[in-house]
Amino acid sequence: MEQYIELLKSNKIKVTPQRLAIVELMDVHGHISVRDIFAHIKANFPSLSLATVYKNINAMVESSFIKELKIVGQDAKYELIKEEHSHMICKNCGKVDDIILETNAIVTSASEISNYNIDESSVQLLGLCPDCQ
Ligand SMILES: [Zn+2]
Ligand SMILES: [Zn+2]
């Protein structure tokens, strides 16, 4: 729990028991939706509402502490900011896995073709995970 307190503090986010629980869930699950977070922690915080969880998540997204991951056909998922990575998404079970890919070549070529000045990229690859094949 101590490492989560440090994580919040170093990002200048006020430490509350709810936020600690949210951060711990994200760390354990990797990518998790607000609904799933709520389902996991509501037993520990009987007065907690779904709206409050959304509010906490939004505050943490705004302070660039967690990242929103929009996936077509799924609820948005959230993860702790870490090394830049791409995502593998299973079209059958909805599982999301991190993968480190070399995307510089894609970004450079996209920039050349489009004349865009690209400062952010997000790669999502969809298919069937090993369990669903
Ligand atoms: Zn799957
Ligand atoms: Zn990820």
What does this protein structure show overall?
The structure is a single chain. The protein is an alpha+beta fold. 41% of the residues lie in helices and 17% in strands. The chain folds into 2 domains: 2-80, Winged helix-like DNA-binding domain superfamily/Winged helix DNA-binding domain (Arc Repressor Mutant, subunit A); 86-132, Dna Ligase, domain 1 (2-Layer Sandwich), CATH 3.30.1490.190. The chain has 5 helices and 6 strands, in the order ααβααββββαβ. β4 and β5 form a beta hairpin. It is globular and about 50 Å long. The N and C termini lie far apart (37 Å). The relative contact order is 0.13. The structure holds zinc ion (ZN) (2 copies). One zinc ion (ZN) binds at residues 90, 92-93, 95, 128-129, 131-132.
Arithmetic mean of pLDDT: 92
User: What count of structural domains?
Assistant: 2
Q: Judging from the principal axes of the Cα atoms, what is the shape?
A: globular
In the CATH hierarchy, the third-tier topology of the largest domain is known as: Arc Repressor Mutant, subunit A
Attached small molecules:
zinc ion
Name of the level-1 CATH class of the largest domain:
Mainly Alpha
The tally of helices reads 5
Q: What is the subunit arrangement here?
A: single chain
Write the CATH homologous superfamily of the largest domain.
Winged helix-like DNA-binding domain superfamily/Winged helix DNA-binding domain
Helix/strand order, N-terminal first: HHEHHEEEEHE
Beta-strand content: 15-25%
Note the topology.
Layout: H1 2-10, H2 17-29, E1 32-33, H3 34-41, H4 50-62, E2 66-69, E3 77-80, E4 86-90, E5 96-99, H5 104-114, E6 124-127
Parallel strand pairs: 4-6
Antiparallel strand pairs: 1-3, 2-3, 4-5
Helix pairs in contact: 3-4
Bound molecules: zinc ion (ZN) (2 copies).
